[in-house]
Write a structure and sequence with these properties.
alpha/beta, 5-stranded mixed sheet, 4 helices
Length: 193
């Protein structure tokens, strides 16, 4: 009579594989979510502005910049350097109709029949760089201004903290500068390390 030896599969190997799987999934999620910034990241609250042209035609792109200039004038008059994120968001939310009317006015003055739509939305954006300022990819609150179909290239910047200002350098010229550029660069550098 042969005795059959049974393999004993104990509780420890099963618990070990479940534990390893859990650690793997946790590590993966930490890695994936750690690579995307959001407005909820401590110290990384931004409000972006995106003016999306109707199309990439020369005339649609040109009027996009005129709308941008008109909206910047209104925004700069309302958003103060010392405003908190919540205050800036509240102000922009209250300005949406005025911004839409201003955009529609510019479009009409320039002979365009399509309209301007303005909304505040939380959207995913890829990494963008402008004059040494890097805004990492992630979900951000943004003032979205769509002209017509909104399928053309867009102009973007950061409304909060206030990094976009219209200069008086001449007709249609826009110069971007930051009143807090050095602090911003230090802030961005901490995320690169």
């Amino acid at each position: 009579m042969k005795s059959k030896s049974k393999k004993k599969t104990g509780v420890i190997p099963k618990v070990g594989s479940v534990l390893l799987s859990a650690i793997f999934l946790l590590s993966l999620s930490i890695f994936m979510f750690g690579c995307v910034h959001t407005n909820t990241d401590e110290g990384y609250k931004l409000i972006r502005i995106h003016v999306r042209a109707n199309s990439n035609s020369e005339s649609d792109q040109a009027v996009k910049l005129k709308v941008r200039d008109a909206l910047n004038d209104l925004i700069v008059a309302e958003i103060d350097e010392g405003d908190s994120f919540d205050t800036a968001y509240r102000k922009l939310n209250g300005m949406k109709e005025d911004l839409r009317r201003a955009g529609d006015g510019v479009l009409k003055e320039n002979g365009f029949s399509y309209k301007c739509r303005v909304r505040l939305n939380n959207e995913y954006f890829p990494t963008r760089t402008y004059e040494g300022i890097v805004v990492e990819s992630g979900y951000y609150d943004a003032l979205i201004v769509e002209l017509g179909e909104g399928k053309g290239d867009n102009w973007w910047c950061v409304v909060y903290p206030p990094l976009c200002y219209v200069s008086g350098g001449g007709e249609g010229s826009v110069h971007y500068k930051s009143l807090i550029m050095e602090l911003w660069k230090k802030f961005v550098d901490t995320f690169r390390k």
